[in-house]
Specification:
single chain, 689 residues, five-stranded antiparallel beta sheet, 3 helices, disordered N terminus
Length: 689
């Protein structure tokens, strides 16, 4: 019995062991299977990753090939052009082993802004510096620095239509230099060509930019100046008082240490304090506006972070106090237009002037008016101002209406007694046929009186009282004669340009006048009055081309009454920045650089002659004058998409590209790109999907 039980137990242990063995075998098998599966997956993943890496390298290589193709081309999206010669797709057969690639090119519609059909129809000048003068004895470009090793840096082309005189130091540019005349001193550039004479080169031509003012904007009086350390706001318009502007911006001014904020818009400075057709109602002095205190900001104000703010703070730090068109394609700034012999001198004050961004023209911040002249309006002779209404015939009861016509027919007062009597007649009208705009100058004013007496006497007392509407009345004496003839008087009523007529003309309020003729007579006779007329000559605001010392030549580096610069900065305490193009083709710029912290002239300078003096306190190491190539719209942007295909090609450009990039083409002259010298900047690089 015991043996049966023992044998039974032995058989039961053997079965359990078998089950355990089967479990172990199963686990091992599953583990081996899993390991084999993982190994297979890993191998396949490795192969896939290797293929992706290969595609990535291929895509990168194809993109680089496309970029090099563009760098060595003259493509600038002109009509009929393609990115890659005859197509906007670059096929790269057998690009990597047996695989092929293709790169498509598409212009960025938001950035195709620099097609430049001509240099004058381009939103970036062709040069950083262009001087147009060809004046004997006058340097086109004159640069003086504190030491022979000092470098005056420029970003962009330099072109002088006369000579270049680097008196001391080095002229350094990252682009080319041309001079039709000689070059003196040290010049560092990609290429320098001097004494080229009359050789054709479009970069040396005047771009003939138009100003933002096709006519003078509305005349403005100077804003109130009463409190020190405030923001004094100027509205766009015409300003004619340089003496008043200078007085406001002196250290002795009631509003000294202020911010002079010129709101966005067009400003026309045509000073009439002296010179031809000056206005005696303005303070006497020169037509030089001097900034001797405070900080001038022209344009949309910004804070230190570049964010637009409602108005600038008092005495803001510059540069960076106004929205400049290099950083913002939406920048709305100012344009300062200078006419006649008007000048700007930045002396001990600070100034930053920001222009407006445009897609089709340069953001001109300072403009020297080149054309136009005063054209006086003369209401004289048969066009003289005449009466329209008899307000009170008084003693002249016979035909008082004839006073309005110079026809030999007179209104009369028949005096039958020898007593002392005064006869009068009052008439009105004398309204200018066209409204006189504010800011006009009355240069001549005469009262024409045709009168006589059948028994004339030199003792007669004759006069005319003038009562301009809204003006102060005044009277003038009319000569008397001891004869019976009719006499024509031309009586000056200009009052040295200071009287009520002149005031009304300048304020734009001369709308009409009443005239009262008065005759004090002690004898019998008939007083005859044929006509009362007003002759006025008025100079209305107009765009005046540069004149006087502005256009006199040659300029030799020292401004005076004979030859002067339209804009100059000459003090060691001045700071002057122009965030925009400066265009004064018939005038000189004379700038002393002191404590500047960045570029002084941005978007280039076009002038008759440019003089730059650098002091020892000038430490900025970057380009002082530049044509930017990194601003919104000033680069020509393209989208490039790369496709990788199996087989020798051609490669299909359907589906999702392996690589997509946005690049910018930058040329010193976008109108005629120079293959191999153009700059290509990668703006973005992404792998779709």
């Amino acid at each position: 019995m015991k043996d049966r039980i023992a044998r039974a137990r032995a058989r039961g242990d053997e079965g359990a062991a078998l089950v355990l063995a089967l479990i172990v075998i199963t686990v091992i098998a599953l583990s081996l299977s899993a390991l084999l599966t993982l190994s297979d997956t890993s191998v396949r993943t490795t192969v896939g990753l290797r293929d992706q890496v290969a595609d990535t390298y291929n895509a990168d290589g194809a993109m680089q090939a496309a970029i090099n193709n563009l760098r060595n081309s003259s493509y600038n999206h002109n009509t009929g052009q393609y990115c890659f010669g005859s197509s906007d797709t670059l096929q790269l057969p057998n690009f990597h082993g047996s695989d092929s690639a293709a790169v498509t090119c598409e212009a960025d519609p938001k950035k195709v802004l620099i097609q430049c059909p001509s240099l004058s129809n381009c939103n970036r000048p062709g040069n950083a510096i262009l001087t147009l003068g060809k004046v004997a004895g006058e340097d086109g470009l004159n640069i003086t620095q504190p030491s022979t090793g000092s470098a005056f840096r420029v970003h962009g082309n330099v072109f002088s239509n006369s000579n270049i005189n680097v008196v001391k130091g080095i002229l350094n540019t990252n682009a080319n230099v041309w001079a039709r005349g000689s070059c003196t001193g040290t010049i560092q550039s990609i290429g320098t060509a001097c004494t080229i004479g009359s050789a054709a080169n479009g970069l040396g031509d005047d771009p003939n930019y138009a100003s933002d003012a096709s006519a003078p904007p509305p005349h403005r009086d100077l804003p109130a100046c009463t409190t020190r350390g405030t923001v004094v706001t100027f509205e766009p318009g015409t300003y004619d008082d340089a003496v008043g502007l200078s007085a406001m911006m002196k250290s002795s001014s009631a509003c000294k240490d202020s911010t002079w904020w010129f709101k966005p818009g067009t400003y026309y400075f045509d000073f009439r304090n002296s010179g031809t057709n000056s206005n005696p109602l303005l303070p006497s002095g020169s037509n030089i506006w001097t900034i001797d205190n405070g900080t001038l900001i022209g344009g949309t104000p910004t804070n230190a972070a570049g964010t637009i703010i409602a108005k600038p703070p008092v005495m803001p730090a510059i540069p960076g106090a106004c929205d400049n068109p290099i950083n913002d394609a939406g920048a709305v700034g100012v344009q300062f237009v200078f006419g006649g012999d008007s000048q700007l001198v930045v002396n001990k004050g600070h100034a930053e002037i920001c222009g407006s961004y445009h897609t089709d023209r340069a953001p001109i911040a300072i403009y020297g008016q080149t054309t136009g002249a005063d054209t006086p309006t003369a209401w004289t002779g048969t066009n003289a101002l005449s009466m329209t209404t008899v307000d009170d015939p008084g003693a002249f009861t016979n035909n008082p209406g004839w006073i309005g016509l110079a026809d030999g027919k007179s209104a009369t007062w028949v005096k039958t007694s020898a007593s002392n009597e005064t006869g009068t007649v009052k008439v009105s009208g004398y309204t200018p046929p066209t409204a006189i705009p504010t800011g006009s100058v009355l240069t001549a004013a005469k009262l024409i009186v045709v009168h006589g007496n059948t028994a004339g006497s030199t003792q007669d007392i004759l006069s005319v009282r003038l009562e301009p509407t809204n003006g102060t009345p005044f009277s003038v004496t009319v000569p008397s004669y001891g004869d019976t003839a009719m006499h024509t008087e031309s009586i000056d009523v200009l009052q040295s340009g200071l009287g009520t007529l002149a005031q009304l003309v300048t304020s734009g309020n001369l709308s009409g006048t009443k005239l009262t003729y008065s005759a004090g007579v002690k004898h019998k006779g008939t007083e005859m009055l044929d006509t009362l007329r007003l002759e006025l000559t008025v100079v209305t605001p107009t765009l005046r081309g540069g004149s006087g010392c502005i256009t006199n030549t040659p300029y030799t580096g020292v401004g005076n009454a004979s030859t002067c610069a339209v804009v100059s900065a000459q003090s060691n305490d001045s700071l002057f920045y122009v965030q925009g193009t400066t265009y004064t083709p018939k005038a000189v710029l004379d700038i002393t650089l002191n404590n500047a912290e960045e570029q002084v002239f941005r978007f280039g300078v076009v002038s008759r002659s440019l003089w730059v003096k650098v002091t020892g306190s000038f430490t900025f190491g970057g380009p002082v004058i530049e044509v930017p190539d990194d601003s919104p719209g000033f680069v020509f942007s393209l989208y490039l998409s790369t496709y990788i295909c199996s087989g020798p090609g051609p490669c299909s450009t359907g589906g999702t590209p392996a690589l997509r990039s946005k690049v910018a083409l930058v040329d010193s002259n976008p109108m005629t790109p120079s293959p191999g010298h153009r700059q290509v900047t990668v703006l973005s690089w992404s792998r779709p999907g």
